[in-house]
Amino acid sequence: MTSYNDFNTDREQSLVAHLVELRNRLLKALLAVLVIFGGLFIFANDIYTYVSTPLQRFLPEGASMIATEVASPFLTPFKMTMFAAVFLSMPYLLFQLWSFIAPALYQKEKRIAIPMLISSVILFYSGMAFAYYVVFPLIFAFFTGTAPEGVTVMTDMGSYLDFVIKLFFAFGFAFEIPVATVLMIWAGVTDAKRLGQKRPYVLVGCFVLGMLLTPPDVISQALLAVPMWLLFEIGIFFGRFITARNTDENTEDETPENADLH
């Protein structure tokens, strides 16, 4: 018969094992980012130039970006390179996260978690690419074209980096709408039919968000709002093939790999 002290000891050992595993996963993730950063650092200025191209092509002739802080010429490309390192290592970072939580998932949960994980990475990258190649040219053409007469547009390089990173994340997360929609349906929070009934409200919300994230012109707002709405529709479409989660079903199949640790 297992004593109370033995039970507590097993729980403590299990907790320590999980913490050690988490530490190892975090160290591997950090190492991956640092290795990629080390390889990219010699190209830091080239990376910044590439990211700033959507603005620089619209600057007036003779104008250029400026550095208002003493350390900006070094620190700004450094920050950009670190961001690029995290961006490129994202699949590996998510793999480490998946490897940590996978043993505690049921088989039914794993079958949906893996495609959701892959889809979220692809959609996030797609959102950032859409921002860079479609939205940025429109935004910067608008901003530089509306400067008052006699004012020369010369943007600080640090302020530009902060601005584009915010937009990168905004569009990256906005493109996660199909994943969020499918997960809500799978979790039983709602279903495809009820989400379809809320379509008018979602469409208005997309245009409101587009108004907040883009310049105040209809074209820019539509370039964000319409893709978001289409992604919502894609989420509803795939959500129709998703059965709401039911932990009472398939109990024989739904056994975590580390059930003995709980």
Question: Could you explain how this protein is built, in words?
Answer:
This protein is mostly helical and 262 residues long. 73% of the residues lie in helices and 0% in strands. The chain contains 9 helices and no strands. The protein has helices at 4-40, 44-56, 72-101, 107-145, 157-174, 177-186, 192-197, 199-213, 218-239. The longest helix is centred in the middle third of the chain and has 39 residues, at 107-145. The chain is flat, with a radius of gyration of 24 Å.
Topology:
Layout: H1 4-40, H2 44-56, H3 72-101, H4 107-145, H5 157-174, H6 177-186, H7 192-197, H8 199-213, H9 218-239
- Rg, please? 24 Å
- Name the poorly predicted regions: 246-254
- Helix tally? 9
Residue share in helix: over 70%
Shape: flat
Structural class: mainly alpha
Query: Approximately what portion of the residues adopt beta-strand conformation?
Result: under 5%
For the structure shown, list the relevant keywords.
0% strand, single chain, mainly alpha
Summarize the structure.
This protein is 73% helix and 0% strand.
